[in-house]
Automatic annotation (TrEMBL), chains A, B, C, D, E, F:
Residues 1-320 form the Acetyl xylan esterase domain. The active site is at 188 (nucleophile), 274 (charge relay system), 303 (charge relay system). One of its GO terms (molecular function) is carboxylic ester hydrolase activity. This is Prolyl oligopeptidase family serine peptidase. PANTHER family: CEPHALOSPORIN-C DEACETYLASE. One of its GO terms (biological process) is polysaccharide metabolic process. Substrate binds at residue 92. SUPFAM superfamilies: alpha/beta-Hydrolases. It comes from Nocardioides flavescens. Gene3D superfamilies: alpha/beta hydrolase (3.40.50.1820).
Length: 323, 323, 323, 323, 323, 323
């Protein structure tokens, strides 16, 4: 795939056409307040693994509707009493995985909370353990993108964003976490969730989002050639009269809209041959982002983005913000 | 795609390796009894359409869990007091469609009940109007094939089969239906549902199933190269330890297993280049079918099957069984 | 496929670069006069079908060169003496189909004439019954798009357009047709034929064209990524010195050129992700259309276009123009 | 593509299931006699080219129905009075090409007659100059494979085979040709034509057929995944009731049937990964071939076959049979 | 992709048709002896990383021809004086990666040596740092599979296997490695290398090979539909006369041949939908393996194989053999 | 593929963004001087072939580093003492082929030197016989495009360009060649080599380059969707920090940069649907070309370009410049 989107000079200033609904902040304030009212403390249970350098704990915490969300809490063995912690969100269809899948952070001295996505967790080998207790009306191939998309109250991503925000509430209550030094991180859908949490919280030390999804829906839906934006296009190819209704709902979860609310430092990556999350949609979120921000662009990558190179950069960048 | 499956001589005697669970009949008897206990009468409301030759009524009836399922009840204008009626089920992802999509039966003098598939109805332009109120654990890309597949009680197709069986309960209560002359029909998933209803009822006059899905899962899952059997394979490619559990659940909804219970006359079609519902899986159901049966094979078709040619055959075959 | 063509703002004013040949009107006047001089009355023979609500008649009428074209004439049983009638043309490779394939119009009270495309009728299950008695020079994969394309007199579409125009001559002679209330309709190639007939007749009450093909060849040939425009590009990729000659011929059958001559009310649909009939080529015809006109745009559809939703709209729109 | 067909051990003995019709020989005897009765002598006109080592002549000769077929007659400059000559037939969609496309034979001392395929000649850059004056009924995408396939008298390949046989009649009349030393050669469709001519003549010195098409239709139609056998499968996927009729016609032009009549020495090549002409279909013709025969198998090639390596082998093999 | 290879019952006993050359053992004994004669001690230099739980050292050691091979030596911080160590080899085109890519073993208490593949290291984001100083004759697309394949002495894999064997020589000399407890591991090409090392050494404690490549070339070359076996098929599709020569060379590096020499305990995985390393080729190596062995089969996976599930199994299996 | 690149009006003036390095001329002067210092005279050995009109000689000459490059020298039998000669270069992955593959020039009275590309010669059936004795660091899939690309001194194309330039040194020493009338020609990579030779020599009579590769790397790398430019993009998708270094090297071999140095008459062809060598990259070289020049554009062709039509044009154009 070539560099098919806007030239880099235009990417630098591109803005989404999506508009913030008048009640955007109220919608999220109410949604989070309701969920928090139903929350109970997280449970933590250490699991036995063959690992000797990292402790793994099975955590459950209250998300949307008070429903329990599963996560792995991992902590370097022998670390100090309270360590900086990164809350991580999953790519589309993925789950928290198996206990020994520790990722690149714990051996660098960080605790992590690897959070499930409700109902997801069967793709790419990363299994999940958290159901989504909510049924739904007709959805495209059953996919998550269009579940409840006709009403903002019913939309799947209202629940998932709430879970993501409350994951930070929960992590701050975990033993051994330094509640003053919390970062969020994710790739693709996980990057979108990290951005959303950045917009809906003011207590984060750092935000890392890689090739984030869930940004600038009006453009993503008509430009992406792979991946979950196509579910929305697919839904609207059948439900031809619901375009307006769908766009209305999506405006509440569009990170190109929400990003203006964010204040924490951001390290974001974009791939200029990305056919899943078109680079303009990622720039739409980055350009709108309210906090200090740094961008790493990968001109020859598709949605795999920076991979290990971005990890290496993050390991350098994190200490400046988290320690 | 070539004729990639067994040669026709072997298709003629092929049997599934799936085994009927000991409690198969009890499972379905209990499931249906529970649902019927919660049922209330169907509602019927005529809708205004530009059609002059066919009346269209918006019907809702009680399916699994007493939940309301939507359907279109169509009746030839000026037909007699009670007409033979065909209950029709939808292909995967499809819904009952729009009121004017009358299909090929009403102008031939039959009433039809076009039944929604809960939660489906966003694919191929055939929209649906019936939600599935049940959440679920991790499922492959969110698709219906793997929702609740780890427990037979939770499996999506337990609900959908129940809806399909109760659609016949409902149609017999509709004004203008000749309750003694009921046929079922469907294509692909709809054909699988028609077969399931044939196995779970003893009051049908005729069964028509075209290139049916939901037959011989153990083979479909390892042979299909397109379509929803791949969701099961995809799920198990992540959930590598759940193969046994999944096969156990599937045995309860496998029409190659259930078909031995059927008694009504069957007209079935199979396509020998079908990559979605491999011909051997269709033969597995046909060969096991307990009632009188007739097969039409399309040697050069993929999953589109016989289309209009099969319709023409059905219009010839139906009067012998339904009138 | 994303929205790959011009943005909607530019579509609204886009015009083809094709120019009307000086003798365009004379060419068609002569062509039609010659064909009409050879015409004999249509034959009509009722066929026995299992349908009770619709009568089906096998019609043949004189097309180009006096050659007989087959069609199905369908009429609602019990309709008045003379009913408004829609002449329908087929998509590329399709034929008039089987007698029972009645489509969405007859049960709404309209008669229809479902017209074969000479030589076509083997694609998508819609069989045809009309040969094209004319041989041809080298053509790309044998396809119809390049048969005789080097001379306007020999071009296949000269014959097909003539057949389409004379189908209306014929339908007006059929018993039970209200000759004052004739509409034409088609999808893709059928939509192009409907537009051509609208340009070459002045007695139509209504024109409906969906995602029409055969519009703005100079652009279609270099932009389409699927479908029959590629036959032209394919032909010219071998016959590299014939570009000018081919464009010259095509100008005589280009509906973006012919459309200025049309006067009847038009309901047209376009799909913004259409890779077969690029939206700009459809707009080129719509923007040039001489009569009253209405456009329905489907932003998330490929060449399937509006399908049942467009049918529903047509059923609402038709009575205003045909009754 | 892997070696997907029968293992080599089974290829060695594989036979087609197609049966010779009772009147096969009479059909061809009559067909050829009729055509010869209409034949007039070939015309030969030297064309000016930039070539200095090879003369090129534009030839036309009488084929089926006395219709003129175009060909290039090429002759090494300075060769003796009469030279051995190879009549060459074209691959599907190709034509005789441009005058300077001399191929590999003339500089080796052979004259060649490069024969057009009527109506073809727009594919792969090899243009043709010979029309097919015959119209036809519905054909799949307009392709040649299904033109007139419902009646053996009307079938396109009856005409093409006749042209191919009469090309040898013609070449023997050309000045400078040694009429006692004529070979035929072709690749793919051209290979099928060479085999057909070998079966329908007894005066050839040598036959070379590479990855021949038009052999063992019953198997080719259900096994090929690319190329023109798919036109037959495509046609029958719409014309579902004509399978028997089509197979009946094809038996008259099936080289796996005709080959038993051949007597001239044959050099044939087959490619074991050929998805256009499955190796079993090629073996079906080879195994049935009546004359002396030699096979070269290319285990790792698809339909490109032996290319230059086969040419080199042919240049070694030809002198033993042609000089 | 379905399960396209042999049924599981036949896989269990399948053997390669490749034969051990008479001088196979001498060839490898000489090759290794020559390389060892040129070897100098490994160099080890600790690199500074942001990791706190794992030390990373940049190692170079002598491989084939005394040429230096790069590797990462990683060691859990705070581990005992000498730890069990796993030597890991890379998948095709991959390299040792970046320092922080520690994989799943070090936090479980194992040291690892992540060995470069000479000349490779630009694929999938896993960069490498080791050149291959040897030029070569014509090779298919330049790929490694066909470099020098015409002479066993020149073949690329002679060098790469030698590097892999000498990596174990080297690791035993590294400070902190328990030279009595060495395992080898790899996936795909890495799995093939692990098997080769198992055949060419007698001092290993454990061998883990996942979906191994480089097994049973005669079958892999004609059955695989993706991946590097296709380079061999591609090469032979041009070099049509070199099939015998190529197979002769490949027999020296075929792990289905070499495996009979192996004695160390093996944990192997196979994926039954693997289109890159067909399951029969993997079984050919497993069935021939000379030491104690255990197989994990993944019926629904393509070449990704068991991924994290296989890792979890390996973490359980390793202590029984390595501690 | 549509015409996806710039419109023709913009192509006419498009310029590359690549800049000539300050030491560009010195780099090539030094490189060629070094190679010439090591050169020894070409060897010529006639090979026996079945051809009677063309003599074929096996030539080897000194290329980069004095290494011997293989070529076929072909000469019309019976031509005068010294004939105009065309040096021809190969497409990517191809070699000089077999002796009898004479191409279109020798029978037109030209001698040709068909030059191998070192290390290439296994693709498309055109085999080669020249090794590249140089190893390399990590390269993408082993392909030639990225071998040594981090240092201009090590880059594969430094060697290949030098070979191409010295092929002309060699051809002028061959018996029977008119050293005053030398042309160069190639397609794709061969076209790029012809352009490079045109820039690095001042003694050519004519240059013919068809759909040339190796022009305007900065654009080719981000726009091509097929072919070897993708190797560069692929390499940089892993080696994410080496973009600058790679572009620096490429500037030394970019024909859109070098072309300003050329002085010989040029006949160039471009294809407007070329996905391998985007038309803008070809125009970048043409627009910069320093000598007299003529362009033939093929609007409906992909990378196959003008094929036989371009050959015919070349046969007309050559005599004006070479005789």
């Amino acid at each position: 795939m070539p560099q098919y989107d806007l030239p880099e000079s235009e990417l630098a200033t591109y803005r989404t056409t999506a508009q913030a609904p008048d009640d955007l902040d109220a919608f999220w304030a109410d949604t989070l307040a309701e969920a928090r009212a139903l929350a109970t403390p997280p449970t933590v249970e250490q699991v036995k693994t063959p690992l000797v350098g990292v402790e793994v704990h099975d955590v459950s915490f209250s998300g949307f509707g008070g429903e329990r969300i599963r996560a792995w809490y991992r902590r370097p063995v022998g670390a100090g009493a309270e360590v900086p912690t990164v809350v991580r969100y999953q790519g589309y269809t993925g789950g928290r995985g198996l206990p020994h899948q520790i990722g690149f952070l714990p051996t660098a001295g960080y605790a992590t909370l690897e959070v499930d996505s409700r109902g997801q967790g069967s793709g790419g080998g990363n299994v999940g353990d958290t159901p989504d207790a909510h049924g739904h009306g007709p959805s495209y191939l059953g996919g998550f993108m269009t579940r409840g998309v006709l009403r903002k109250e019913d939309y799947y991503y209202r629940r998932l964003y709430t879970d993501a925000v409350l994951a930070v509430d929960a992590v701050k209550q975990l033993p051994g976490v330094d509640a003053e030094r919390i970062a969020v991180h994710g790739i693709s859908q996980g990057g979108g969730l990290a951005l959303a949490v950045a917009a809906l919280r003011d207590d984060l030390s750092a935000v890392m989002a890689d090739v984030p999804f869930l940004c600038d829906f009006p453009r993503g839906m008509v430009l992406a050639t792979d991946g979950p934006y196509l579910e929305l296009a697919g839904y609207l190819s059948s439900h031809r009269d619901e375009v307006g209704q769908v766009l209305e709902t999506l405006a509440y979860v569009d990170n190109a809209v929400l990003a203006t609310r964010a204040t924490a430092p951001l390290l974001l990556s974009v791939a200029l041959m990305d056919t899943v999350c078109p680079p303009s949609t990622v720039h739409a979120a980055f350009n709108a982002y309210g906090g200090p921000k740094q961008l790493r662009s990968y001109p020859f990558n598709n949605h795999e983005g920076g991979q290990f190179h971005q990890e290496a950069l993050q390991l350098e960048w994190l200490p400046d913000h988290l320690r």
